[in-house]
Amino acid sequence: MRERTIASHFARAALGGARRRGYDYLVLLQQLGISAEWLDEPRARIAPEQFTGLLQGLWQALDDEYLGFAHGPSKRGTFAMMCHALIHCRTLEKALSRGLLFYSLFPDTPRLTLTREGEMVRLSLDDSQLWDPDHFFSECQLVIWHRLGSWLIGQRIRLEQACFSYPKPGHSAEYDLLFPCPLVFSAGHSSLLFHSRYLHMPLLQDERTLKHFLDRSPADLLSRPDDGDSLSSQLRRLLSRDSARWPDLEAVAAHLHISPQTLRRHLREEGSSFQELKDQLRRDIAIYHLSRADLSLQQIAEQLGFSEPSAFHRAFKKWTGLTPGAYRAQEN
Hints:
Elements: E1 6-7, H1 8-14, H2 16-20, H3 26-31, E2 45-46, H4 48-62, H5 78-86, H6 92-104, E3 112-117, E4 120-125, H7 136-153, E5 159-163, H8 175-178, E6 183-184, E7 190-195, H9 207-214, H10 219-223, H11 231-241, H12 249-255, H13 260-269, H14 274-292, H15 297-303, H16 309-320, H17 324-331
Parallel strand pairs: 5-6
Antiparallel strand pairs: 1-2, 3-4, 4-7, 5-7
Helix pairs in contact: 5-6, 11-14, 14-17, 15-16
Protein name: AraC family transcriptional regulator
GO molecular function: DNA-binding transcription factor activity; transcription cis-regulatory region binding
Domain HTH araC/xylS-type: 233-330
């Protein structure tokens, strides 16, 4: 229930390569309960499992793990073989180096490099040769390698900075789910910066855990938001523990041992607000129940703290562009 939903932008962008390749994906969308018209609604959201299914379906249909965004395809199973090649490395540095070397053996492969910058290390992507108008594939590459590295050492690698070779895009509001760190746009290269101490850490995974990991990866790596250490992420976790009571800002500030004014200021610095976080969580909980048909619309409204179902209807339409009834109808 606490899983963050995925903005329609990412589903729409993921289909770009398939459109370019002439693949008719309407049947796949129908199987996943995703309305093609609905994807044109900028405020629409889809469940993480729908996004995972979409990526897996596209990989299978196109036989291309690059989803049609690179000059040449990367046949299904390439990512898995790369993981098998690095799983016996002793440290993260050895594993990442071997993984990047593995992909460098293939022609038309987007180049990734690992370079030291004092106490930091930068993972850079050369995205200059990609057909990637929505920057979907560039973002995927950075997210996958960051989260793969975190999984290998059994702890989240804290990002110090994320740079992008393109101007700030329209969907940048979603970046707190992908890159919870300071962002730089219109940079020389797209890259991620993190502390070099992680490179010396031993791998905690093996062939056994890799088998389970590969059942749904790398799709799961993309559909599972990063629960970062920003104040926004902390508040979301706090609110989701007891969404039935919906504490107000003053109560949350007291729990965090800071003043309401300080809480507002910190959230403002992160480009968010208490009401916005609360609405995002209520939206995601509503989508969870609407897609499962386990509660009536009135029960969902009550659980979300709305005194009247009509207020829930108005709020949900404002959040997603659809009424709760219309959303449930297109899901079922």
